[in-house]
Amino acid sequence: MEEKRIQEPLKFEVFEIEKNVEEIRDVVVKMKPKSMIHQLFLSTIHGIFEGFGFIIGTTIVAGIAFLLLRNTFESFNFKMWIGDTISQSIETIIHE
């Protein structure tokens, strides 16, 4: 009976020590620097995705800009304004 009372706290202490050792091991593994190949691979993948993001984003922005410009140039009011401006320019050149 006496042994059981002594063993229970000891088992608990051993369990706590094992838990602490595992936590320390996890921290050491996280602190260990990655290999050069691993860092190079991750940097390359990151650069590729960054490049694709830039290309896709630029394409979307350019597409929207061209769509707006096309709609502006095809509008009736813009055509009238251009026609009036050109007519006024020609008249100004002729009358000078």
Fraction of residues in helix: over 70%
Low-confidence stretches: none
SS-derived structural category: mainly alpha
Mind telling me the C-alpha Rg? 37 Å
Report on the structure:
This protein starts with a helix and ends with a helix. The protein is mainly alpha-helical and 96 residues long. Helix content is 93%, strand content 0%.
What topology does this entry show?
Elements: H1 2-31, H2 36-74, H3 76-95
Summarize the structure.
By secondary structure, the protein is an all-alpha fold.
Keyphrases for this structure?
96 residues; 93% helix; single chain
